[in-house]
Write a structure and sequence with these properties.
Blueprint (H helix, E strand, L loop, with lengths): L12 E5 L4 H6 L1 H9 L3 E6 L13 E6 L9 H11 L5 E4 L8 H5 L4 E5 L10 E3 L8 H6 L18 H10 L8 E4 L12 H15 L3 E3 L6 H9 L5 E3 L6 H9 L4 E4 L2 H9 L3 E4 L15 E4 L2 H4 L17 H4 L3 H12 L1
Parallel strand pairs: 1-2, 1-4, 2-3, 4-5, 5-6, 7-8, 7-10, 8-9, 10-11, 11-12
Helix pairs in contact: 6-9, 7-8, 7-13, 9-10
Length: 342
């Protein structure tokens, strides 16, 4: 595309293979914003369960949902998608680290293909970068793929039209800024989940102040957990888990007074909108994936509990006690959430 001026160059048409998890997708926003600011037009290819996040990232021009099953090669489907993409893009950024993720840009013959080395996929990339060691913070990890002087201090910023937020709240008989949201699930495993009874106690305490309802968000697989919390909340909670789309959940968080959550994708969504929040960490580390917001409060008791096992990054507690989570009291979470509101 040209503006007609002599020597004018078309804006680079960029294809981005998105991360497969919600939190990682949010953490990629500073990279996407950087690419857009330097004139690249962005099309993001994402798996269906993460694609709605990109509706809240203004830098993205278009989103393609990839018809691939989790963990499968789906060779035929990848070839069909790639064939439809041929001659449409100048550069591809491959954010996931898997071999599979680099296949579509390679099959589509996108001239420049940028990503980190790993899984013997360097042959599929034209610009293969060496991966940092350990568990680096995710924003600069993705941002480095932009090359040049990426600002590693950038924070993810999400945005939705006010009308979209209001309409979603109204569809659930809610009014923006008159309810709280909780995201008590964590697909990773129980070592990331604050106890249900603690969530219920926090809900009762918040509701007792002025009757504001607490909306419980999550996937269909987390609906039973949310039902358990609601059953012990003395009528404080409304269960939306499994009954709303991911985009609806994002909009509900954006319109809420604040969020309480574990280390999860929806935690990063709240941070992206600047919503006051308290985030409880257990087996994972806020040094790796913190909620990047001045209105976020993190409760991680590694130093206080003096547990050598923290962070273990295990899905279940190898010792069976889950002290890293159970020791975070509802009273402490309430105080942290209150401080985020100031």
């Amino acid at each position: 595309m040209s503006d007609g001026a002599p020597g004018a160059r078309a804006a680079p048409r960029s294809f981005v293979v998105a991360p497969q998890w919600i939190g990682d997708a949010v953490m990629a926003e500073p990279l996407l914003a950087t690419l857009a600011e330097r004139g690249e037009t962005l099309t993001v290819a994402a798996l269906p369960w993460v694609a709605p996040v990109f509706a809240a990232i203004p830098a993205v021009e278009a989103t393609i949902e990839l018809p691939f099953a989790h963990g499968r090669l789906d060779w035929g489907a990848r070839r069909r998608v790639a064939a439809a993409l041929r001659d449409r893009f100048d550069v591809a950024y491959v954010l996931p680290n898997s071999f599979k993720a680099a296949l579509v840009p390679w099959l589509a013959r996108i001239p420049r293909r940028v990503g980190y080395r790993g899984e013997a996929r360097a042959v599929l990339l034209t610009d293969a970068r060496d991966r940092p060691r350990g568990r680096p913070p995710m924003v600069p990890f993705y941002g480095a793929l932009a090359g040049g002087a990426f600002d590693a201090a950038r924070r993810p910023r999400l945005s939705l039209p006010r009308e979209r937020i209001g309409a979603t709240a109204a569809a659930h008989a809610l009014v923006p800024s008159s309810y709280w949201t909780f995201a008590p699930g964590a697909e990773y495993g129980p070592a990331k989940r604050w106890p249900a009874e603690h969530y219920a106690a926090l809900a009762r305490a918040l509701h007792a102040r002025d009757g504001a309802p607490i909306v419980l968000l999550g996937s269909p697989q987390e609906a039973a957990l949310c039902d358990e919390i609601a059953a012990h909340s003395a009528g404080a909670c409304r269960v939306v888990a499994g009954r709303a789309t991911l985009l609806d959940a994002i909009a509900l968080i954006a319109g809420s007074r604040g969020l309480a959550s574990n280390d999860s994708g929806l935690m990063h969504v709240a941070a992206g909108f600047g919503v006051p929040q308290v985030a409880v960490f257990g087996s994972t580390s806020p040094l790796h994936t913190p909620p990047l917001s001045d209105r976020a409060r993190v409760l991680w008791l590694k130093d206080e509990l003096d547990l050598d096992c923290m962070p273990c990054f295990d899905r279940t507690c190898r010792f069976g006690h889950y002290r890293c989570l159970t020791a975070v009291t509802p009273e402490r979470a309430l105080a942290a959430l209150d401080s985020a509101l100031i």
